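Q: Start with the shorter request: fold the first protein.
A: Done. Sequence, then structure:
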Amino acid sequence: MNLFEKLLYMLQVEMNTPKAFGWFHLMWICITIFSLLILFKLKNKYSEKQLKIVLGTYGIIALLFEVIKQLIWSFNYDSINNIVTWDYQWYAAPFQLCTTPIFVAIICLFLKNNKIRNALLSYMAFVTILGGLITIIIPDSCFVSDTLINIHTMWLHCGSFVVSVYLIMSGTVKLKKENLINAFVVFIIFVAIAEVLNIIIYNIDILNGETFNMFYISPYFVSTLPVFNVLQENLPFIIYLITYIIAVCIGATTVYGISCGVRKLKNKKTALPG
C-alpha cells in the first residue's frame, strides 16, 4: 500500500452499528437542537457574512465527508494476501435528494443575492428540509458499521435541516409563493439531471451488475424508499415519476404552509398589548 492507501485504511474505523435513539443518535439530536438554539439567537443579526459562514461551514465539511465516503467505499484491502483493489460503489454516487444541499450550499457561497441564489436557497428551505428531518427522526436505514460514514450521514442530514430552518427563520428565504414555485423549479431541474444520469450510466454498461438509482427514480431499478417502492412496482413508470414529483412538492408546500402559520402566530403575539 502507498501512503494514501494506508491513510484510507486507517480511516476505515468500525463501530457497532448505531441504533435509533441509542447514544449516537441522541448525541446528534442534541447537536441539532443546540445548533438551532445558537442560530435562533443570531436570527435578528442576519448579514451576508453570517449566511456565508452558515452555508460554508455546512457545505465544505459535508463535501469533505462525502469525498472521504466515496474513497473509503471504493477502497478495499485484503490483509491476508496484501492486495489493494478499487471498485467504485455506484449505488452510493452523491446525487440524491439529501446530498443536493451540499451542492446548493457550495454554489451559493459564490453567488450574489440574485434570483438564482434565491431559487436554490428556496429549494433547500422548502424541499430538502423534510429529508433531513425524516432521517433525524428515523435514521435506522442510514446507519452502518463505518464510524466516519455514520458521522457523515448525520452531519449531512442534521446539518441540512439546521440550515433549512435558518434560511426560513432568518428571513433569508422570504415566505412568498414565488419562492415556493422557484423551489419547485429547482427540484424539477434536479430530477431531470438525476434521470438523465440514471439513463446514461445504465446504458453505457459500466455498472457490472451494481445499482445506480439517483433520486430513486430510475426506470431500471425499483426504489428502496418505503411506499415509493410499492408505487413503482404497481404503476406505469411515468405515472410513478409524476406521483413522486407531486408527493415531494406537496411536502414542500406543507413546510411552506407551516412556516407561514408560525409567522402569523408570531406576528399576532407581537401585536398583543403588554
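Q: Next, the second protein, separately.
A: Sequence, then structure:
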Amino acid sequence: MTFTCTADENGKKLGDILRARGFSRKLITRLKRTENGILRNSQPVRTVDTVFCGNVITVTESDTGGAAANPALDVRILYEDEHLAVFDKPPLMPCHESIKHRGDTLSNFFAAHCPNTVFRCINRLDRDTSGCVVVAKSAFCANALQKSCEKVYVGICEDMQISGGRICAPVAREKESIIKRCVRDDGQYAATNFFVAKRYGRYCLCRFILETGRTHQIRCHMAHIGHALVGDDMYGEKSELIDRQALHCAQVTFTHPVKHKRLTVTAPLPDDMKRIIDT
C-alpha cells in the first residue's frame, strides 16, 4: 500500500500518521519488524521519524500461507482491486477448510486466485448460505472493513399474512448441540428486520437486515415466528425443491479502506432459489 503525505500531515511523526490512517498498533509493530516493511521515498524509515508533505510512504506486509491452492474451483468475482475482493460464494461451498472439507473451499479458490496472499474473510457465510463474501488482501484492510461492512440477505419462506416486522429475541446455543441455536431468555441480544419483497403464490421472497450478527440468527428467528426458511432441515423441514436453506447474501455495502468511497456490491439470486419461486 502506498500513500502520499498531505499538507495536514506535514511535520508529524510517521507512527502518528499511520495510526490516524487506521493502522493498528499491532500491525505497525509487525511492519517495523519486516524488512522494508515501511519505506519513505523508497528508503527505510522509522515510525518515530518526522515526515513531510509530498513524502511517499510504502507499507508492505509479509505474512503469507494458508490453504492450498485449487485452480479447478470456479467462483464468480463480483468486485476486485489490489486491496480487496468480493466473491459470489456458491451454495454448499464452505469459506474455510475443516476436517470434512479440504481443497473445496473459498479459501482454496482464493489461494489459487491470489497466490501468497492471506485469506482474510470479513463476512464468513455458512456452507449452505450463498452470496457476497468480502475478502481483504491485507491486515490493514481487514481491520478497516470489519467496522464498515453492512449486509442484506434474501431468503424464501412459505407465504405469510404479514408484510414484515422486527424480531427481537435473544439467541442462545441449544444445550445438546454445538451448532444449533434457539431463542432463550438467557441468550444474547439479537434483532432481525425482515420485509416481504415479493410473493410467488405459495412462497415469498424476504429481505433481511440484521441489527446484530449472531450465529444462525435469520434461520433461528424465522423459525421462532413460525416461518422457517424453505429447505432448512435444522430449524424447519427438508424440501424437495432445494437441498439447503434458501438463504443468500444479496448485497454488501462498505467504505473502501484505501479509496474511502462507499461501495455497494450485489450478487444475483442463485439458480436453486430461482427454481423455487418459478414453480
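Q: Describe the second briefly.
A: The two ends are 49 Å apart (CA to CA). The longest helix spans residues 25-32.
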